[in-house]
Each structure stands twice: as structure tokens, then as C-alpha cells.
């Protein structure tokens, strides 16, 4: 009897153990299968995200922007590209191209289009507080802004924005002169000799880095690295700011700007422009130059400077202080919300500061940044300098800045000195 009980007990224990083993084996076999499935799904998701939201590093971006995109690559007829200059319904910060595409980009349009898909719905109007500007004076200035932008668009449509006439341009180059002020969502394109030093002071104050523009030195403005440029951001940051921020440019009569640059860089001691530009200019354009002039680069005349400017084989390259504005800020590709003029600098600037909601009482600085005792370069001063060069060179200098004169509606300058 005891043997039967032992036998039955052993049999039941064995059956229970077998059932437990089978259950455990089934669980073990099921567990790794589920983990592999989860890992596989996670990998698919990780691969899918970069396809839609991946942004290129600066190194990749530089490599990509060596290629160009044209109407042919986009599948846009030439006429359609030209006629689209005035179409801003998609909120594109670029004139003449769809909002999802940036001019000057890769020959892989599908890749670029996919790259920019997340931003197609980001259509944020500039923070221009026009409701706060009610009196007649400000109203007249607002109307003037619309006229300036209309003139610019018409010139761009006629002379620049078409596939045949439009040179391919890299994105990073287009935005390389644009400074960013995130607090007030502001993009300022720097045009040297058009109030840029004081404008950068204003940006520093607006950003909260200083209480007053008067306390910011010239070196702090230009070498302090307090401000970021738009090309320092990744593609996402660049495109977002171009769409959402208020874009402003201040311009100046081109020949007045040219003379101002010459006076600043060559008529005063300068440890950069004299040895770099002055020596090369004197060596090529001055007959029987003495050793001191060749060694120091000091004493360049305006006539020699103009010869350098007009020479297609310059001994030294261009400089931003006398480069054409259309090659600094690309106003036919970037749709600027505000066009100010140096000739009305304080009035235009203070109007703009009210529009963007700058702190109450803040005004644009009116002091001269450098060489404070020198007379400001005006039409009278320009006439005096132009008298030093022959009529043919005076006309050629105007031709050099022809597009700038048209774009910003300056009159034909100084026909007779």
C-alpha cells in the first residue's frame, strides 16, 4: 500500500514538473521574439525620423551648397519662376521661390524638399506693431516703406530674378551678413558705411547685453562677438528665422558710401587697409612710387582707389565696405520687411524701433562712431572727390553700382562734378 502511494506521488510530481517545464519553455521561446520585434520597430522609427527631420551639420551644408538648384531641377517653367516674384502667399522669406525651397541649393531637390517639410506650415508674420503707429507722420512713413519695397520688387523682377539672369547663390553666403536678435525676433543685414556700427549697438541693447548704446565702444561692437550671425545656425534655425523674424536693411547712396569708405580706411592710419589694400593699389596704379609708399601702403589717392575698384584684374579682392549692397544682403532673394535709408537714418530707425516694440524711450544713437571731428560724407563732399577723376571713370563707377541705384531708387548721381 505504501509502495502504491509512493509510486502515485512520484508520478504526479513528474507530471507537474513536466507541465511546469513545458510552460517555462513556451515563455522563454516567446520572450526573445517579442524583444526582437520591439527592437526592430524602434530601429524603423529611428531611421524614419532622420529622413524627415534630419538637419545637416555645417560641414555637410557647405558640401551640399556647392551644388545649385535651378527651375529645371524644380520642374518649374522659366516663366513661372519669373512670374512668381510677387507671390508671397506661402510666407516664403525668399522672393520668387516656393516657401519649401531655398535658392542656391543642391541638385537633389527631393532631398531638400523633404528636409524642409516640417516648416511649410510655419507662416508667422513679422512682429511689426503697426497698430501702435497712428499719427499722420508715421502713416506717411509706412506708405513710404511700401513704395520702397514695391520699387525693389519691380527692379528684381525686371533685372535679377529669372533663371537666365539669376546667378546661383549659396544659402550660407546669402545670410552671412545678417545679424540675429532673438528677443525681438529681428534680423538686420549689415551694410557697412550705412550706420551699421550704431545698428549693432542697438541690437546689443535690445538683446539685454547693455543698458545704453552710448557705453558700447567701437571695438566691442565689431570685435566683441556679442551678436550672432544667421549663418552660424543650422538649416532649421536659418529657415525658421527667415520666415518668422522681422528682416531689416539700411542702405545709402552708393557713391556717397564709396567715398565714406575711402575716407575712413585710407585717409586715417589703419593697420589693416594700408598694408593689405594700400600697398597693392600703389604698386599697380602709381607710376614711380617711392619706397616709403610701397612699404607702408599709406597715401592712396581717390583716383588710384577708383582705378582699383574698376579693374577686372584687381591686385587684391573686394571688401564689404565698398561691395555692392545687392551682393551683401541679396534683397532680390530675401524679402526684407523694412528698408531704411541712411539719408533719413534717425527718423527711419526710430520709426522701425516703434514698429518692433522696442523699450519705451529707446532711440537710435546719433553720434559718429569714428573720426568724430571729420565732416560727414554728404553730397558736397562726394562732389569734391568725384572732381578728381575723369568723366569716363565717374560714369564707370556709377555703372558699377547701377543695380543698387535702381533697387533703392536713388537718382542718377553727380552727373557733373
Q: What are its keywords?
A:
417 residues, five-stranded mixed beta sheet
Query: Hey, roughly how much beta strand do the residues contain?
Result: under 5%
Largest beta-sheet characterization: 5 strands, mixed
Rg, alpha carbons: 32 Å
Shape: elongated
Number of strands: 5
The low-confidence runs, each spanning 5 or more residues with pLDDT under 50, are: 28-92, 96-126
Subcellular location: Golgi apparatus membrane
Membrane topology: Single-pass type II membrane protein
InterPro entries: Carb_sulfotrans_8-10, P-loop_NTPase, Sulfotransferase
Protein name: Carbohydrate sulfotransferase
Task: Describe the protein's architecture and organization.
It is elongated, with a radius of gyration of 32 Å. The protein has 19 helices and 5 strands. α14 (302-310) packs across α18 (391-400). By secondary structure, it is mostly helical. It has a domain at 256-323 and 378-407. The protein has a 5-stranded mixed beta sheet with strand order 3-1-2-4-5, with helices on both faces. The protein has helices at residues 2-53, 58-64, 71-74, 78-83, 109-116, 136-160, 171-174, 196-206, 218-223, 235-244, 254-266, 273-285, 291-296, 302-310, 325-328, 345-355, 379-386, 391-400, 402-407; strands at residues 178-181, 186-189, 228-229, 246-251, 338-341. Helix content is 51%, strand content 5%. Keywords: Carbohydrate metabolism, Glycoprotein, Golgi apparatus, Membrane, Signal-anchor, Transferase, Transmembrane, Transmembrane helix.
Amino acid at each position: 500500500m505504501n509502495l502504491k502511494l509512493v509510486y502515485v506521488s512520484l508520478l504526479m510530481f513528474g507530471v507537474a514538473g513536466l507541465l511546469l517545464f513545458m510552460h517555462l519553455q513556451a515563455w522563454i521561446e516567446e520572450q526573445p521574439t517579442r524583444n526582437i520585434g520591439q527592437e526592430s520597430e524602434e530601429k524603423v522609427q529611428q531611421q524614419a525620423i532622420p529622413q524627415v527631420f534630419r538637419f545637416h551639420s555645417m560641414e555637410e551644408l557647405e558640401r551640399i551648397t556647392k551644388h545649385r538648384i535651378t527651375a529645371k531641377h524644380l520642374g518649374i517653367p522659366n516663366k513661372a519662376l519669373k512670374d512668381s516674384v510677387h507671390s508671397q502667399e506661402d510666407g516664403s522669406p525668399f522672393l520668387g521661390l516656393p516657401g519649401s525651397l531655398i535658392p542656391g541649393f543642391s541638385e537633389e531637390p527631393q532631398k531638400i524638399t523633404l528636409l524642409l517639410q516640417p516648416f511649410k506650415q510655419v507662416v508667422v508674420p513679422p512682429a511689426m506693431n503697426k497698430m501702435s503707429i497712428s499719427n499722420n507722420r508715421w502713416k506717411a512713413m509706412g506708405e513710404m516703406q511700401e513704395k520702397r519695397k514695391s520699387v525693389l520688387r519691380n527692379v528684381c523682377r525686371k533685372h535679377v530674378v529669372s533663371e537666365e539672369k539669376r546667378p546661383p547663390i549659396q544659402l550660407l553666403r546669402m545670410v552671412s551678413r545678417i545679424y540675429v536678435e532673438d528677443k525681438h525676433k529681428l534680423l538686420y543685414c549689415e551694410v557697412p558705411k550705412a550706420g551699421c556700427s550704431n545698428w549693432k549697438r542697438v541690437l546689443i541693447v535690445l538683446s539685454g547685453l547693455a543698458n545704453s548704446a552710448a557705453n558700447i565702444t567701437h571695438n566691442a561692437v565689431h570685435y566683441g562677438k556679442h551678436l550672432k550671425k544667421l549663418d552660424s545656425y543650422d538649416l532649421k534655425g536659418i529657415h525658421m528665422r527667415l520666415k518668422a523674424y522681422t528682416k531689416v536693411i539700411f542702405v545709402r547712396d552708393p557713391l556717397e558710401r564709396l567715398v565714406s569708405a575711402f575716407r575712413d580706411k585710407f585717409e586715417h592710419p589703419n593697420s589693416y587697409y594700408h598694408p593689405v589694400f594700400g600697398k597693392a593699389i600703389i604698386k599697380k596704379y602709381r607710376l614711380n612710387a617711392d619706397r616709403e609708399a610701397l612699404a607702408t601702403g599709406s597715401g592712396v589717392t581717390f583716383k588710384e582707389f577708383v582705378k582699383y575698384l574698376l579693374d577686372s584684374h584687381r591686385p587684391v579682392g573686394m571688401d564689404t565696405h565698398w561691395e555692392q549692397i545687392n551682393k551683401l544682403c541679396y534683397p532680390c532673394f530675401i524679402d526684407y520687411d523694412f528698408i531704411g535709408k541712411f539719408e533719413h537714418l534717425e527718423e527711419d530707425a526710430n520709426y522701425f524701433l516703434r514698429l518692433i516694440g522696442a523699450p519705451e524711450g529707446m532711440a537710435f544713437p546719433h553720434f559718429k562712431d569714428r573720426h568724430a571731428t571729420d565732416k560727414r560724407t554728404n553730397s558736397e563732399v562726394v562732389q569734391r572727390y568725384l572732381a578728381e577723376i575723369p568723366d569716363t571713370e565717374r560714369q564707370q563707377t556709377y555703372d558699377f553700382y547701377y543695380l543698387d541705384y535702381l533697387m533703392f531708387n536713388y537718382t542718377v548721381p553727380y552727373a557733373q562734378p
